[in-house]
Amino acid sequence: MSASDYVTPQEGFWAGEFGSEYIGRNDSQQLLASNLNFFTKALKQAGRVGSAIEFGANIGMNLRALQLLYPDVALHGVEINPDAAAQLRSHIGQDNVYEGSIFNYPVEQQVDLSLIKGVLIHINPDMLPVVYEKLYTASRRFVLVCEYYNPSPVAISYRGHADRLFKRDFAGEMMDKYLDLKLVDYGFAYRRDPAFPQDDITWFLMEKGA
Asked: What NCBIfam families does the entry give (predicted)?
């Protein structure tokens, strides 16, 4: 697909060369260990998770950690970058990967957990309601949002690119939009953690109908 095929410039950015370069920066055993530690904490109140979908799954480093945490979990992923999607299929299966924009993903089944991590910050703010709807609709119980937090919306430069990173209260906006979505737990993962660093991510575990 060309940049003109996407609704927003952010989609073309991640589907193209920059998104492919991102793969090499995020494929390591250290990251897998950090992710396992991260999800152990973030999903402590969720109990057993039998199925999950990640929106913007890249090569599956988050889903691989979930697989270690829940060996029998059925995993699904949505990924816009072709190179990343190819690697993702090798980890979670050909039929479990949707290659394309989150905006176009048809939610046809529900899972125990819908997850997004470090992706909402790169979504065009005008399209956030569409992604919120996908996250909410795809889950039968839990929604886990893991992003940069800011109490009010702000745009900052991302690796020299403007309008490619946005911080705000994503989880708060979802709870305002879906009144049956309740906060179960939340926390912060620091980039200077000596053993299990993450990229200054604030996470929010929410439950439907709680």
From this structure: Pse_Me-ase
Distance between CA atoms of residues 198 and 161, nearest Å = 22
Rounded Cα distance between 17 and 169, Å, is 29
Q: Are 19 and 132 in contact (CB under 8 A)?
A: no
- Of the chain, the end-to-end C-alpha distance in Å amounts to 41
Instruction: Report strand pairing: 139-147 vs 74-79.
Output: unpaired
Structure confidence at residue 149 (pLDDT): 97
Phi then psi dihedrals of residue 123, to 5 deg: -85, 140
Continuous segment of H or E residues that includes residue 145: strand 139-147
Pairing of strands 111-117, 97-99: unpaired
- What pLDDT shows up at residue 101? 94
Can you list the residues of the chain whose pLDDT is less than 70? 1-7, 9-27, 159-163, 210
Query: Which of 31, 2, 5, 48 is closest to 118 using CA atoms?
Result: 31
Strand order of the β-sheet with 97-99 is 97-99, 74-79, 51-55, 111-117, 139-147, 201-208, 181-189
Encode pLDDT of 172-197 as tens digits: 999 999 999 999 999 999 999 999 99
CA distance 124 to 120: 8
Q: And the tokens for 92?
A: 């979670």
What are the structural domains, with CATH classification, of the chain?
Answer: 9-208 (3.40.50.150)
Q: For 191, how many CA atoms within 13 A lie in the half-sphere containing its CB?
A: 5
